[in-house]
Amino acid sequence: MAKLYFNYSTMNAGKSTILLQASHNYRERGMETFLLTARLDTRAGNGRIASRIGIGENAETFDASDDLFAVIEARLSHGPCACIFIDEAQFLTKQQVWQLARAVDDLKIPVMCYGLRVDFRGELFPGSAALLALADEMREVRTICHCGKKASMVVRRGPDGTALREGAQVQVGGNETYVSLCRRHWRKEMGDTQTR
Length: 196
Description:
The protein is an alpha/beta fold and 196 residues long. The chain has a single domain (4-142), classed as Rossmann fold. It contains five helices and ten strands. It has helices at 15-28, 68-76, 94-107, 126-134, 183-189; strands at residues 4-9, 33-38, 48-50, 56-58, 60-62, 83-87, 111-116, 137-140, 153-156, 178-181. The N and C termini lie far apart (42 Å).
């Protein structure tokens, strides 16, 4: 039975690596997959999903204006596809998550989404909030803070290296911009020593 999956974490947990490995496993068994990634994230090149460990694949891209049900339906009209993989799923809109749910239900194809849960301010991304509400199955991909505890938060660093407290929710970046931390160390970086 097809399901909508949400694999979430903070930065540098290996989400893209896991996505690429899962897609490879399907292809190794002779099954086609369809990869999508956010158009605005060009760190690995336009239309490319890449991992920090050096593996990558070409992918179709999406932005907020795309109807993902129609995109998936068009892909399926060209031949069999065993699974849809979506990287940078935090950039999906709420409407697009509903479109993915429709694809699972009506087109009977599994959709596996990989993305961040929260932004540098500790707030849910709209796409992640919708996935947390609608996904059939969820899995946390874990990484660790410098103290050894599970990292569940991320800080965005400014040019001077200090943690930013304000700014646009979306700013594409990697290790030069973001650091994954446990909640306690995130609170310390954000200057919050009191319970919110």
